[in-house]
Predict the structure.
Amino acid sequence: MKDGLIYITGGARSGKSTFAENLMLDKGHRILYIATALPFDGEMRDRIKRHRQRRPSFWHTLEAYRDIGQSLERKGERYHGILLDCVTVMITNLLMDMGCKEGCPAPEETARVEAAITSEIDSAIAGLRAWGDLGVIVSNEVGMGLVPDNPLGRLFRDIAGRANQRIASAADTGYLMVSGIPIRIK
């Protein structure tokens, strides 16, 4: 990867996606936007619609939250830039796929669930590095808020926190967004 892997984190509505999209604007026309959100209700459909309208029409979109590395390999195309937005939404969807809709898996199952999600994250990182000149990964910082009051919330926070650490470690550059201001942290 010529330009490297950039990790962008911050709180909700901190400007992560806008900053990530702006990084891609001067990279050329071969941009792939990997959207991880699912339109499961009207409010999410509206959010997705606003995100689509904000992106340049010539960008390609891959709507996926699993098998991202394999999807990029199947496409077989190199891109000037690949933007994955957002890891915490991806993790939520994966948790729901693994049967966590009604609550937390049994303690003996949590390691298996986290290992499966970690594998998905690692595959996505490898895919961005293999198929793009510049890779940008957006994820919410989950360690600065309250401790969730339920086991599933704590499991999500723990998995997302460790996933963010893996991404930050793999990244060449990292930014923390605070009120729309990017602060370079790596």
Q: What stands out?
A: The chain has one domain: 4-184. The two ends are 17 Å apart (CA to CA).
